[in-house]
Amino acid sequence: MPTTTDDPVRGLPAWTYRNAELLDLEYQRVILGSWQIACHANDVRQPGDYFVLELMRDSVLVLRGDDGVVRAFANVCRHRGSKLLDGTGNCPKAVVCPYHGWAYELDGRLKGVPSERSFPGLDKATLGLREIELEVFFGFVFVRVARPEDHQGPDSVAETWGDFAEHLKPYRLEEMERIEFGDDMVWDANWKVGVDNNLENYHIPLGHPGYHRMLDNQMEGFENAHGVAGSISTLKQRPSSNWVERMYQKLAPTVLAAYPEQLRKQWLFFTMPPNIGLDFYPDCVDYFQILPLGPTRCQVRYGIYGHKDERREMRLLRYLNYRINGKVGEEDRWLSERVQQGLASHGYDPGPLSRIESSLRLFHQQIREACPVASLDEEPLPGTVRQRDAELLAAE
């Protein structure tokens, strides 16, 4: 039956949140072709400093060279494919493969090969680390593993944000450094469930009672043509009944006296497609990144940054923020895992979406455009997802 202007907009079919074959398509066509936050430039401040971003099947090495330039590489030795580095640290002279000792300069060039004479015709100039696209935006290091096919729209992070970047300038993000708390989490939910949750404020009054007690939350928010969306929450004048929230409400306007008054009372939330949240508080900034691990599991990466400020009052304010938002993270996990459980229910059909969930609509549209098979109401038979997707692509 054809839809009419009165028909409600509905979300993705339930099967798309648990199908491993579809996840392979999403990873290839959505994740790999999108800009992903790896770290902050100040996480790799000195030559040899590195930071590793782990995606579902790809490991990305961010490395500062002797020339001061930050580059990104596939974290894979060009010899037999061994992973090179883990986590974060410093390589003072070279990146050395732990398997056979192939060594790479800090700019990615192949430096040395043990028993080099045993490789007839070896051309080291062609065997440097494979470089990956990198862009530093307000101090944050974004990487893109694969340039998307038939890409339309903005090609850079800066173009994606457009005029919305003006909101970020007062925070002086380039000067910030990582704060030593904020743990990654694994959720028993499809990555899209986590993204859906992060894209709307409709669930705040019931799902996040702390936010509801201490903040006046903008429900619908605002978004640009490239999918970046934001909303502004303001500290309420009425004190929260919870002492942690109440103390934050009291301290923020006074501890941060050097900030403009509006910034002292404002919590600014942004989302960037397809899977990134950036949250701007008076005392710190964090990112929130949802990455697939499997059809019903995802990793939630956190990074928390702030300006150097050792005052006792600032340490207390950041501790209170950590308590408040740590609770919110647990609530989001609980809510998302309940959704994942419900999506497995026999006969469930997606319900209508509210105007408050407009960013969620755009995200679902992105998934359908990248993977047309996700538009099918009925789950394809096992082993046929790519075939059905190819048929739909050919029919367009």
Instruction: Name the quaternary structure.
Output: single chain
Shape: globular
Largest sheet entry: 9 strands, antiparallel
Helix share bin: 25-40%
Question: Which H/E pattern describes the elements?
Answer: HEEEEEEEEEEHEEHHHEEEHHEEEEHHH
Helical stretch tally:
10
Report on this model:
The chain is of the alpha+beta class and 396 residues long. It has 10 helices and 19 strands. The strands form 3 sheets. Strands 11, 12, 13, 14, 15, 16, 17, 18 and 19 form a 9-stranded antiparallel β-sheet that branches. Strands 1-10-9-4-3-2-5 form a 7-stranded antiparallel β-sheet, with no helix packed on it. The protein has a 3-stranded antiparallel β-sheet with strand order 6-7-8, with no helix packed on it. The N terminus is likely disordered.
Quick take:
With 396 residues, this protein is of the alpha+beta class. The protein is built from ten helices and 19 strands.
Question: Which features characterize this protein?
Answer:
alpha+beta, 10 helices, 19 strands, 27% helix, 396 residues, seven-stranded antiparallel β-sheet
Give the topology:
Elements (H helix, E strand, L loop, with lengths): L19 H12 L4 E5 L8 E6 L4 E6 L5 E5 L13 E3 L4 E2 L6 E2 L5 E3 L18 E7 L2 E5 L12 H5 L15 E2 L6 E3 L3 H8 L5 H4 L1 H6 E3 L4 E2 L5 E7 L7 H13 L5 H4 L1 E7 L3 E5 L4 E10 L2 E10 L5 H32 L14 H13 L14 H11 L1
Antiparallel strand pairs: 1-10, 2-3, 2-5, 3-4, 4-9, 6-7, 7-8, 9-10, 11-19, 12-19, 13-15, 14-15, 15-16, 16-17, 17-18, 18-19
Helix pairs in contact: 3-8, 6-8
